[in-house]
Design a protein that fits this description.
single chain; about 100 residues; mainly alpha; Arc Repressor Mutant, subunit A; three-stranded antiparallel beta sheet; 4 helices
Amino acid sequence: MKLSDLKIEKISEQILAYLYTQNPKAKFTSHIALELARDEEFIKKLLLNLKKKKLILEIKKNPKGENYFKRSRWKLTEETYESYKKMQFKLLESQS
């Protein structure tokens, strides 16, 4: 089954929104997939695409500075976070 580009874009937006709510914590691919009720490989593909667009950062080291071998954590870039923050502010202003 192939998803349309529009649906893939919407799921990518859900990933960004989830990472925004978790900021500044970085989340593992498996946690993101679980939260969005999607397959891990599919989510990883979308995460790599978002990374290529420079919207998110991939973290390949644990807090002790040791490399992960098979895992990655993800978080929004500072620019993406600020953009989402501005959008949220504008949304709240328009509702008042």
